[in-house]
Structure formats: C-alpha cells, structure tokens
Amino acid sequence: MLNTQSDHGRWAYAVDLPATSGKRETRRRSGFPDENTALTALHHFLAAERTGIALDETLTVADYLTEWPVRSTGSTWTASTG
User: Fold this and answer.
1) Cross-strand pairs, 14
2) Number of alpha carbons in the 13 Å side-chain half-sphere of residue 81
3) pTM for the structure as a whole
4) What residues contact residue 58 under an 8 Å CB cut-off, 6+ apart?
5) How far apart are CA 45 and CA 37, in angstroms?
6) How many CB atoms within 10 Å of residue 33?
C-alpha cells in the first residue's frame, strides 16, 4: 500500500507480514520524497522477504553479532583459548 501523508507530502508504504508470533505484524515505512522512491523501497523489502533476508534497520552491529550465532547454528558463543 502506498499513500501520501497530506500534512507534509511524503510517501509511505505498509505491508502485512506473515504472523510468526500469532499476532498480526505490519511493516510501515514513511518519509519517502516521491511515489517512485517509496515503491522502490517497497519492492526491495518484498524481494528480501521472499529470499528470507530479514531487514531490520533498528538492529545494531553489537546486537547482530550477539544474535548471529544463535540464528545460524542454534547455539551461542563459548569462551575458548583454543
């Protein structure tokens, strides 16, 4: 869904995602200067979703490095002097 925010002429999109937690999830992004930019961002997001890439702009590098071993192997890092 694309729309313009009438109060300042910016464009936005909203996408309903598959519910993984039993609750409806909607991804919303706004502030795009024109419809084409919003549409490009929407297509980029949908392409990433189809390939299984999770886009999370709020995720920091530190959070990613903490979560990455759990996501990829199901385990966490362990100390080693190996």
Assistant:
1) 28
2) 0
3) 0.58
4) none
5) 12
6) 10
Is the CB of residue 12 less than 8 Å from the CB of residue 29?
yes
**What pLDDT is recorded for position 69?**
61
Q: What are phi and psi of 59, to 5 degrees?
A: -75, 125
Which tokens sit at 9? 């002429």
Residue 60 is encoded by which pair of tokens? 């920091």
Tell me the mean pLDDT per 10 residues along the chain, length 82.
66 84 84 91 88 73 72 58 60
10 Å Cβ neighbour count for 56?
8
Burial (CB count <10 Å: 0-12, 13-18, 19+), residue 38: buried
